[in-house]
Design a protein that fits this description.
285 residues; alpha+beta; 434 Repressor (Amino-terminal Domain); Beta-Lactamase; 2 domains; five-stranded antiparallel beta sheet; 13 helices; globular; disordered C terminus
Length: 285
Amino acid sequence: MDRPGLAEFLRRRREALQPSDIGLPAGVRRRTVGLRREEVAAAVGMSTDYYTRLEQQRGPTPSDQMMAAIARGLRLTLDERDHLFRLAGHQAPRRVHRGPHVSPGLMRVLDRLEDTPALVITDVGETIAQNRLAAALYGDHTVFTGLDRSGVYRWFAHPEARGVYPERDHETQGRMQTAQLRVALAMPDADPLAAQVAAELRRTSDEFRRYWDLQEVTARYAEHKTVVHRELGEIEVDCQTLFTENQAQILLVITASPGTESAQKLALLGVLGVQTFSDAQVSGD
């Protein structure tokens, strides 16, 4: 681990960013060049003390997962990410196009979406980034490991995952997710997770096998659907998609028609965040 080199690199990259680069307001007066340490720490998901110690050459050797999080938080290019890993004493990740590194273009768009749910997923249904409102609507889907990283796998292996959609839509969703997985398997340099999920579900799920045998294929996502929030109930939403050039990563933007009850519910979700109504009542007392 090159402590001086790592500290200098982190400081320089932090100073090169502006608040708007990570979706923050600029503020009236800023004496700090670029971002503050606490802003980077919040974007990365680590404590300010931990990040500060890295910049002061006092921190412990970060894990691969922490390095990946720092690379995302500092909006590093792939070359910069690889350099960061080497400074921390790690081997740089393989440059496969389906890694956990979010496309910088999609990340810049995601950073600017503050008033509506949005998330970045892979073609296997793995959530690799989501904004605050997406976490409030769907839950934090970036925490899963193993086969559970795939939303397709969770749909069939964990029935409780289906609660985000009304029961009347479960068959449609199941068939669509199966059809999307078939597309992911056929892609050049397919994510190994796709083959693992397909093999395991064909072994364990009668429902998946039934849909799989239909030979349906689609790379499309439902443009209009109903989602179910545990506090707000059913919300009618439109889903817009933005793909990377190789279609390995997809930005999903969730909106509701202006002036509708669903739009009001999304606005309320923006106020509540991950709180429940009872939490909000307690905090307001």
